[in-house]
Structure formats: structure tokens, C-alpha cells
Amino acid sequence: MRYYYPVFKVLGGVLMLFGLTMAVPLGFSHFLHDGIEEGFALSMAITIAIGAGLFLHCRHLDRELQPHDGFLLATLVWTVLPVFGAIPLLLHIPGLSFTDAYFEAVSGLTTTGATVLTGLEKLPVSINIWRCFMVLIGGMGIIVLAVAILPLLGVGGSQVFKAETPGPMKDDKLTPRIAETARGLWTVYFAIATACLLGYRWAGMSWPDAFMHMCSTMGLGGLAGYDASFAAFDSLKVELVAIVFMLLSGVNFALYFRIWQRRSMRPLWRDLEARLFFALMAASVAVVTVFLVAHGVYPEWTTALRHAAFNVISVATTTGFATVDYAQWPIFAPILMLFLCGFATCAGSTGGGIKLSRSLLLMKQVQREFTRLLHPRAVRPVTLGGAVVEPQVLFSVQAFMLVYGAVLTAGTMALLLTGLDIISAFTAVVACINNTGPGLGQVGPANNYQGLTDLQTWICSIVMLLGRLELFAMLILFTPQFWRR
Amino acid sequence: MRYYYPVFKVLGGVLMLFGLTMAVPLGFSHFLHDGIEEGFALSMAITIAIGAGLFLHCRHLDRELQPHDGFLLATLVWTVLPVFGAIPLLLHIPGLSFTDAYFEAVSGLTTTGATVLTGLEKLPVSINIWRCFMVLIGGMGIIVLAVAILPLLGVGGSQVFKAETPGPMKDDKLTPRIAETARGLWTVYFAIATACLLGYRWAGMSWPDAFMHMCSTMGLGGLAGYDASFAAFDSLKVELVAIVFMLLSGVNFALYFRIWQRRSMRPLWRDLEARLFFALMAASVAVVTVFLVAHGVYPEWTTALRHAAFNVISVATTTGFATVDYAQWPIFAPILMLFLCGFATCAGSTGGGIKLSRSLLLMKQVQREFTRLLHPRAVRPVTLGGAVVEPQVLFSVQAFMLVYGAVLTAGTMALLLTGLDIISAFTAVVACINNTGPGLGQVGPANNYQGLTDLQTWICSIVMLLGRLELFAMLILFTPQFWRR
Ligand SMILES: [K+]
Ligand SMILES: [K+]
Known about the structure:
Two copies of one chain form a homodimer. Chain A is built from 21 helices and two strands. Chain A is mostly helical. In chain A, α6 (98-109) crosses α7 (125-153), α7 runs parallel beside α9 (207-218) and α14 packs parallel to α15 (332-341). The interface between A and B is large, with 50 and 50 residues. Bound molecules: potassium ion (2 copies). One potassium ion is lined by residues 111-113, 220-222, 318-320, 435-437 of chain B. One potassium ion binds next to loops of chain B. Chains A, B: This is Trk system potassium uptake protein.
């Protein structure tokens, strides 16, 4: 156990920082006079105190963090922080169980955006601010996790994206790498976040609304301050701003870092994954628009386009905002949208799912297999952006895909065993593993996760965490190998 | 086009043989006096005449068949034979469309066992004999395809099972290899089929019933002579015989060939895949039995065990017989059963799905990935039964799995687009791609494929063919590369 003290020390530090971020909802509470400042102050005190305690208790054994400590650290951060993130919710939402509060905090910090709450409008505004702010914090963690930590650990073939990373590449030490990468990524993250905030304000939102929905948009989270989600605004301007920033957040943030470094947009246009992402979004919106008009869901092209654009991009980017109850559309459309959310976002974005670059590698490998069947002696390596992809990376990507399928199956089976109907069970697992949020049926866009039993809620929390930690980073802790040394 | 004449010549020969097999239902019709001898005679004449015409027309250009001709030949055999197999159905079932007749023949020859017919009891017995006999013929084709042809072509990593094959291994010429392998496999196939026939007769079936259900059992087909499937017999003895022979047919027939050659059962007990198969069946029956009792579906253990044993083994082995409407069981059970049918049978059996050996390789690769994450420099090769599996085989198996997932998704989406509900759409595609037969919902065990529109029926026919031809053997014909020389 003492061997892991350096990991716990970092966790303690992260907890203290997390506690400090509670100053943001506390500040809002103060200026909005919603009367729950004390709750936030208490939560903050508890979080910082426990974080400091952990930090101090574990500070003595100081060994350099090794790459494989990253598995434990990432899992601890995403499972422990929600415990503390849940405190303000437990204090100020009457009758909320720990199960539900933890789910809500996990949903925020994994940027899933599924909720167990209704009557959001009646909650203190700063509670909604905190729910959404956790999405922004989660997003900060995710881009560092995805761009710096997981590629270093070689999870799911993500080492192939190393070249994109800001910061020192050849340094195998965890801490400096994370620190330098984080600095670069967060700079561009906050720059875009500021633009998003001003965009929503321009579109007519109040400052608190603009802030909380900016947080939720940047993290592709999907939590909103209204039960009706974005239908509450009923504003084309708001929807357009949301679309722009959902699309921007679906791209690898390392690209923005390079754009900023080079003062040129070229890195974006030259990136295959980003181009594919925009093309896929455009094509999907077009298909769903035509489908909706053809089925007479919306008689007017413009209405169909508006609703298709917002809701398709929202689900496909794993955001999960809604302006209509798209579960009522003929079933092909919502199923297509949920299918897209499994792979449509770029690696290094705040999105979930297996990511476009992995899908691309898998497709290229299938293509190569067809060639091999006809010309067994002419097997060429798979390439990505001109560079040869090592077989080991392909194996890692495929293992990722297999475990993804296994978790999808096991999660659905587990929910079926608890008595949930099959549509809700399957789509809840899809929506959670991809960190999207709304599924269909009982967990559809017009409903939420409130109707689930405690056991079902826990299953969903676990699936959200598994998805966010790219499966392997969490599952590896359950192998005896990990704990052997 | 002339380049493919040697392939068409073989197809002509196969057609002639297929025409000859119509003598079997013709003989039954004669002895049972059901008055449709002439129909079979006519069908037989047409099939043999067209087969002979093709054979003679294409006999002049005589080049040796190459391995890659196997793709075209396999696809032609399984798409063209059903056209002729449908003739007797079209002649004697009033109002039957070609779409439905072709579906029924594809369902037989791919040993899927899905049906678009109701009122089976009122059909001439020899028509039911023919439907089921096509399953037996299909099964003969499948074991040769799976044991001799596909491994030679390297489809889906099946080259790893080469060692099991009777016949010359190093011969790259298609024809002698197929001939010798077929002789060995069909000897044991017919021996077991005879035992099955006598078993059903012993259990109390009439000769025609015993014959047709033997055919359907050996091919793991699932077509029956009664709308109620095996519930029509309501006999424990019949069910036990069916269970025994469904299990036997789920094993690699190359193993039986070796058992026969060596006069020893050891090849069976020593085979990892076979042992896994039996263990998986036993475990699944146990789980479903407990589940049914726990949910009070059947208050008595013995009843639960009886129904679980028959229906779970039937679906998991991709047979598709039913003694109860298991779609009415709490949804976890039928979904588990459909999940099993995707991978539970052995390579070289008459079953469908991705096969146990492929699943085993995939699992081993995932396991290796976990090890690699912790010890990047200690990557060991994947082994199967002590032998190292080449990376290329792993890539092939994974490509197979990916295309399997893609067809599952595309097929479901296509059916959703036609307006089918999601449960029926998804389970129909699962049941067709795995050549199982009954799905859930509109295509559940108490219903059948009759309610589908023509377009939906064609989609299902295509998915059955894709599944049976192990996806690649058919899909490769749609690549431009295949036709380039
Ligand atoms: K989300
Ligand atoms: K079948």
C-alpha cells in the first residue's frame, strides 16, 4: 500500500485543487443571492481538508511516478472526485440519495451529462452552475488524459496520436509531461471557452445561463439548467452558437494548440481526422434532414434542417443537449444518432466513444484484409496520414474495440437482469459508455435516469467511468498482474 | 467472362447433383401418395437441364481452378441453388411469391431455418421433406466449405484450423482438395445422420417426421414440419434425441473424421474447442434454468430444466427449434440465447456465427493486451492448443469480427429504414447472420418471417447468405480488386 503513496499524494493535490474550484459556484451563489453559500463553503472545506490530509500523510515516501501509476491515478481521480463533487448536491437537493448524487457528479466529471434530477429550474442557480462546472473541469481532465496520459500508457492504440501532443514527447516521466501538456491544452481550451461564453451571451442568454451552458458545451457534457434542455431557449441564435462550439469541442485540442503556436489554421485543414469529422457531421445532418422531411415529421425543410442540425450534432458529438424529443422521430433517426456517438468525435477532444481515428484504423485494416485474401503475398502495412502504423497499435485498437463490445454486452445484460426493458437498457449503456447522456425509452431525451433503481444507477455510473477511462485504464486494476510487483 | 467458365462448369455440375437430390422428396411423394410427384419431376428436369446446359456450354475453356475461384464458386452455389430449390415450393404452395420461395430455399440451404410459411401441417408432406432436406444438403456444403475451402482461402483466420482437416493439406489445387475432404467428412456426417434418424424413430416419430427433423437437426437448421415446431411432439424422448444430435452437430466434423480414422474418442476429449462448447452449453442451460425458476416462469425445477435445456441448446447451437414461446420469458433469457448463438458453435460444424475458436482467439488477444499495458517489452505470441498463432491470423479474425459488426449494424439500419420495429429488426439480423432462424418480436419463435415486406425479406435473405459465406467470401465479390486481373 505504501508503494502507492506517491499516487495518493497526487490524488490529494488534485482533491485540493478540486475543492478550490468550488469557489466558482460559491461566487455565483454570493452574487445571485440564492442563499447556499455556506453549503459550498462547507463542501470546499471538507474537500480541501481531506485532500490536504491525504497529501500530507503520503508525502514522505517520494518516488518518481512511473507510467503505470497513471492507471491507478486516472481511475482514482475519476472515481474519488465525484464523491466530493456530490456533497453540494446532497446538501441542497432534498431527498437526494448518495447513489443519485454520485451518479450526477460522475455524469458531470465524465462529461456524460445524464441526469437523475427533474425540476432543475427550481434548484438554486449555483447548484446548476456547479453541475455544469464539473463538466468543464471534467473536460480539462479528459483532454490531458487523452492527449498526454493514455498515449504514454499505450491504451487502445492511442500511442499513434503521440505526434500531435504539445510538450516533451520523449520524456517518460509522468509528472513533467502532464504539467507541460496541460499548460498548452488548457490555454486553448480556455480561449475557446471564453469565446463560447461571449457567444451565448450575444445570443441572448443571461450571464449565469451563458456560463453554465458554456461549461456543458465545452466538455461536450449536455447537462443543462432546464428540464427542457435547449428547448427552454427556443432561439435559433442560441442553437447556432451551441452547434459551432459543439463542433469545435469535437476536434483534437492538440490541433488548436498547434494553430495557436503557428498562428495558422493549416493544422486544422490538414488533419485527416478533423476533416472527416466535419464531413461526417454534415453528411449525417443532411441524411436526417431528408429522412425527417420524407417521413413528414416536419413538413418544412427549414424546420427539419434546424432540428436535425442541432440534435444530430448534439448526440453525435456525445453532448446530449436536445431541442425536441427526437426519440419520437421514426426510430431509424435516433438509432443512427446513437450509432454516430460511438465513434464520431476526434481523439483528444472532450467527446466520448471509440473516436474517429480508431474507427479509421479499423476500416483500413478491414480493407487490407480484403486485399490480402486476393494477394496473400502482397500485404502492405496500414498507414495513417502517410506514416506506417505498427502492428502493435492495430492490435491495441482492436483489443479496445473488443472490450468496448464486451462492456456494451455485459452492461446491457446486467441492466436486463435488473428488469429494465431492452430498449432502455441497451441505449442507456450506449449513452453511458460513450459519455453521451440521453438514450431512448425510459432514459430518452424527454425523460432521464431518475426512474432507475439504485442498482441500475450504479451500473450506469460504472459504465460512464469505464467509457471515460477508455476501458483499459480502469479494467486493468481488476487484473492480478497489476498488483504484482 | 470466359475466364470464369471453369467456375460456371463446376456450378453446372453442382446444379445437376442438386437436381438429382430432388429424387428424395419425389420418392417420398411417391410412397406417401401426396400427389405432387410430377412437380418434383418437373423441378428436377429443369434443374438438371439448366445445370447440364451450363456444364456443357462452359466445358471448353479448361483451366485448373485457382484458390481465389473459390470465392466466386461458393457465392454462386449458395445464391443460385436456392433459385432452383424454390421451384417445388412455387409449384405447390398457392400464392407464394418468388421472394418468399427464394427466402425459404436460402433459409434451408444456409441451414438458417427461418420460415415465411404457416399452416405447415396442411402442406404436402414431401414439400416439408424437401424444405428440410435442403438443410441436410446445405449442411453437407457447409462443412466442406468451412473445413476445406475457407481455410485454404484464408477467410476470417480459418487457416488456423487447417491442421484439423482430413485430406491433403499442402495441395493448393481446389478440386482434389475439396473432393478428398468431402469424402471423409460426408462419411461421418451420414453415419451420425443415420443414428439421428433411428433416434427420432425410436422416440416415436413417423418415418417421414424422423427423416425431415433428422435433416433439420444435422444441419442445425431448425425448419420443422409443424407450425408449433417441436412443441407439436410434446415428447421428452424426442427432445432428448434432438438435444443429443444438436450438440453433436455443433462440433467440428473433422474431429469425427479423426475419431473414425483412429477408432478412438480421444480427439474429441482432447479438443479445446469441443470441450469449451460442451461446458458453455451446460453452463448456459444451468443459468437459464435458475433464472426461470427464480422468476417463477416455471415453478418446478424439472420443467424449467427441460425447457431451458431444449430451447437454450436449440438457439445457442443456431438450430432454432422451439418447444415453448421463449420470447415470453423475461427478456434476459432470450437475449442471452441470441447472444450465445453468435459464437457458441465450433468451427467446422454446421452451426453459424463467429465460432468458438475465433472468440477464443479474440479473448486471448485482449488478455495479451492487458499484459502488454503493464509490460510493454514482454509481449508473447498468442497460442492456441500449444501452437503459436501468427499475427496475420489474428488480424484476419479481427477483421472478420469487425465486418460481422458492420453487417449487423448495416442490416439493422436497413430494416429500420423499411419501418420495422427495432426489436424485430435487430433480432432478425442477429438470427439471420448467425443462421439461427427465429429472432424476437415479429420474427419470434411463435411468429415467423411471413409478416415482412418483400424488401425486408430480401434484406434477410442477403444477411443469411452473408453469414453462411463467412462474410468475406461473398463481400469480396463487391470489391473492384476481385475482378481485376
Ligand atoms: K455528453
Ligand atoms: K438454424
